[in-house]
Fold:
Amino acid sequence: MALTHLLYLHGFRSSPQSFKAQLLKAYLAEHHPEIVWHCPALPPAPFAAAALIDRWYAALPADARLGIVGSSLGGFYATWLAAKAVTARVVLLNPAIYPARDLRAQIGEQTCWHDPTQRFTFTAAHVAQLEALSVGLLPNPERVLLVAAKGDELLDWREMVARYPGAHHWMLEGGDHALSNFSELLPQVVAFLVAHTVPGAAL
Structure:
């Protein structure tokens, strides 16, 4: 069945204005306008973010065919959703593997990346919520594409690979956490979501 809905989940301190989200949105509008796009502004509180995602997922039509793309902390949330949305196609872009560990150092007041006038407080309770949202191995890893840059300056690509055994692993030499070359990756990312074509295969 053809993909009908695509959910993009952004990272910590990010927003729907993420350049990767905007590039993907524009690409779909041009090449796959039939796919319904959704990119919510995720609250900083993990339980609130998960509840927002869950409400949207529960409201999907019964015949919906879902794709999920998650970047960084959004990759953690995408993994959480994929544990229940077992038929979804999932693309993880430099996903956070142990966000409770890595974001503990961010406890305190934070500014939003795309609008520094917006501030929020990240707390120890939020760290505990991230721990509570951790899930085990995904039931259908063959439906998952991990895109990991070995040059990621924030997260370790080796932890990403170990977290998703059985998934398709697209390892990028060099690169960075933001995947600054995402425009070059877009055709193969979308091909995986839409046509089940793995990177490296003829498009």
